[in-house]
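Hi V.,

You were right to ask for the full record rather than a summary. Here it is.
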Amino acid sequence: MSPNKSREGWIKDKGMMVLSFFHPTEHLKTIDVFVKEPMRFSLLWQAADKLKIKGITVPILSIKHLTRLKKQAGRPQDLIDVANLAMIARIKKKR
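Predicted structure:
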């Protein structure tokens, strides 16, 4: 089976949007890799927030784009995340 067929199956059969890689002992260290590009990468890249972690600059999705993706997924945990992201955005705006 080709990689594209596998990804199409994950998307269709499991509703998968990302493939998550979890740290075996530090559960907050998770990396999500998109199975299929949900919106233009150039848009995501341009608006990405930059975090400096141990001297390395790491681009992460903006709150705006992460909220949009969470709304698209629509799972209960994603909707909780949307509410939490809105609260974070309000706090950041006040600074």
